[in-house]
Specification:
alpha+beta, binds magnesium ion, RNA-binding, Beta Polymerase, domain 2, 54% helix, transferase, 8-stranded mixed sheet, two-stranded parallel sheet, ATP binding, 458 residues, 9% strand, 25 helices, cca-adding enzyme, domain 2, binds adenosine-5'-triphosphate, Poly(A) polymerase I
């Protein structure tokens, strides 16, 4: 009992020592506590009860203030991982370099990390100024200083419902301005990924990057080349699934951040043709993200690279290669070029291949082949992809819908659908998409309906 009281008293003392910080009351920041994860609140309460400081921090606070739904909730505390872990029934320490604790509540994980000191204080950057080590515990104030933007360095105390703000982040947030903490050049040198993050947050907030934070982007863009490919891939994925993919890509281009570093972006933004397809794909992704649905990275990247695969596939067919072999070779050459820089992980690239390789198989509807197609593990994604192609007018929309209906049907309906095919005139039954596309361009042939209404994809 007494130790509890002392711990709490010490905690309060520490709280008051975060001077230099603004303590912003509920009326000013406007966070409605009911929108805060109860598990994140619980983690803070348990830690505070033990006498530690504990706050919800980062993206969640930023999103709550502007009325967006946070993706996840992180907690920052002055307790060390060893002190945190025993306080929760299901908690595990993760990370080798900088350890933090995952506190698990059913499906939700609250990432709980100890205050950390910034690299500038630790003096641990390489010759280019890139951070090598930032794994030292620090004070609350130092933890705020090591974060990237002022809007990402806000700490919400669910007990008092105040936001602690060392860098005028709430003010920037109200102005929807992305502002680097400290000297932008130094901070980009420490971690070039921050350039991409700046763009993503500005677009997400429907705001802008402050002039000082934006100015170095063009001249420092080449530093992104030093970022490990896997990290670049993660960031790229975040960008594409933030709910505003196309805007992000356009902004990257405007800021000169797309060149060379991501061959994928060169393909998406610079190549003539194929834009309609990509726009549809990104639009569909944005809609799914905003509706709180999941997005499959393989599907997304398969869509972004499809135009290239398609071009090379057709070229190979023209050169006399068999259809399936041609698409496999085309896929390999496109993926080889991309993975050099972007590190599309194996699990994604093999799914992408499957989605692509299924496409030629949808052109013919031969009963035996249909049943084999239905057994493919990625059939759903592949049929979804087919819908996208139909919406982009590169595949017959009625035929695409037939495949979708087939996949969604139960076994007896499927059997009937396949059986019904036998009753159709031969050319309709097997329905190759290419002949239909040609047909559409030339106008309908007598007796064959023209289907130009692409179905909506969602
Ligand atoms: P979101 O999760 O919506 O992408 P976020 O702000 O939560 O946005 P995370 O990558 O989850 O971003 O990181 C959590 C917090 O960690 C950030 O809010 C920021 O304070 C800090 N942070 C993340 N990446 C960096 C970085 N590269 N440099 C400095 N601080 C960072
Ligand atoms: Mg986050």
């Amino acid at each position: 009992m007494i130790t509890d009281t002392i711990k709490r008293f010490v905690g309060q003392l520490f709280k008051q020592r975060s001077h230099g910080a603004q303590h912003i009351p509920k009326e000013k920041h406007g966070i409605d506590r009911r929108n805060v994860s109860r598990h994140a609140i619980k983690v803070c309460e348990v830690l505070q009860h033990e006498g530690y400081q504990a706050y919800i921090v980062g993206g969640a606070v930023r999103d709550l203030i502007v009325g967006l739904e946070p993706k996840d909730f992180d907690v920052a505390t002055n307790a060390t991982p060893e002190q945190i872990r025993p306080l929760f029934r299901r908690a595990r320490i993760i990370g080798r370099r900088f350890q933090l604790v995952h506190v698990v509540f059913g499906q939700e994980i609250i990432e709980t990390s100890t205050f950390r000191a910034p690299a500038s204080i630790l003096n641990t950057t390489d010759d280019h100024g890139r951070i090598l080590r930032d794994n030292e515990f620090g004070t609350h104030e130092q933890d705020a200083a090591r974060r990237d933007f002022t809007i990402n360095a806000l700490y919400y105390d669910p007990t008092t419902e105040t936001v602690i703000d060392f860098h005028r982040g709430v003010e920037d947030l109200k102005k929807r301005t992305v502002n680097m903490i400290g000297d932008p050049r130094t901070r980009y040198r420490e971690d070039p990924v921050r350039m991409l993050r700046a763009v993503r947050f500005a677009v997400k907030l429907n705001g802008k990057i402050s002039p000082a934070t934006r100015e170095p982007l063009q001249s420092m863009a080449n530093l992104i080349e030093n970022v490990p490919a896997s990290r670049l891939f993660d960031e790229m994925l975040k960008l594409l699934t933030c709910g505003h993919a196309m805007e992000c890509l356009q902004q990257l281009r405007q800021d000169g951040l797309h060149h060379g570093m991501l061959p994928l972006l060169d393909v998406v933004l610079e190549q003539p043709g194929g834009q309609a397809f990509i726009e549809l794909a990104l639009d569909r992704t944005d809609h799914r993200v905003r509706a709180g649905k999941t997005v499959s990275p393989s599907f997304l990247f398969a869509a972004l690279l499809w135009h290239q695969v398609d071009l090379r596939w057709k070229q190979r067919i023209k050169n006399g290669e068999p259809t399936i072999q041609a698409i496999m070779q085309a896929a390999d050459s496109v993926l080889d070029e991309q993975t050099e820089k972007l590190a599309i992980q194996k699990r994604f690239s093999s799914d992408m291949r499957e989605i692509w390789f299924m496409q030629p198989r949808f052109e013919k509807r031969l009963p035996k082949a249909i049943w084999r197609i239905l057994e493919q593990p990625r059939i759903r994604a592949a049929v979804d992809f087919l819908q996208l192609r139909a919406a982009a007018h590169e595949f017959d929309s009625v035929l695409a819908q037939w495949w979708m209906d087939l996949v969604n049907a139960d076994d007896s309906t499927r059997a009937r659908m396949v059986e019904d095919l036998g009753k159709l005139p031969r050319e309709l039954g097997s329905g190759a998409s290419k002949s239909r596309t040609r047909r559409r361009r030339r106008g309908p042939r007598p007796g064959i309906p023209e289907h130009s209404n692409a179905p909506t994809i969602d």
